[in-house]
Amino acid sequence: MVKFLAFIVSGINQLxxxxxIFLMTLESSFFPFPSEVVIPPAGYLAAKGExxxxxxxxxxxxGSILGALINYYIAYKFGRxxxxxxxKYVFLDESKFNKIEQFFNKHGEITTFIGRLLPxxxxxxxxxxxxxxxxxxxxxxxxxxxxxxxxxILAYVGYFVGNNIELxxxxxxxxxxxxxxxxxxxxxxxxxxxxxxGKI
Length: 200
Description:
By secondary structure, the chain is mainly α. It is built from 8 helices and no strands. The chain has one domain.
């Protein structure tokens, strides 16, 4: 792992911000490449004065959007036909699919935003957005907001903790624990707000 991280740091140092964009595009699509081994090392390089923290964050957000768009368009072009044809084999008939689609059409913004901040979900939240043909501008906007928060957290953890993967994981674990109740509060506020407006 230490050698792998040294390789990532060296690669980012050589490829610069384009390397961050490329790796975060992979991370945000369906490739199993964790952002925890991309942005924190870049933050570490920023602490050493070898990169710019703001440009790291912007590159990370841009890469996240590109990766999310890959998943979005795959689902947009092929997902509906595939699920309607084969969904019955996993108990997803057309009526259930329509309900999922209606839900995402109503609440796609908050779902995309929250999903981008949850481990194990952030890479795949773009698929239901594409299936529901969510408005592209809103999809990009809320993807950027959610991904932006996560990238900022990763960058600052790397900046202050350094290139120690165990410390990075420990700090991210603590941050995630604190983040979950905050996200729950955001969802509750959203539900109450939409109920008052009669959208639920």
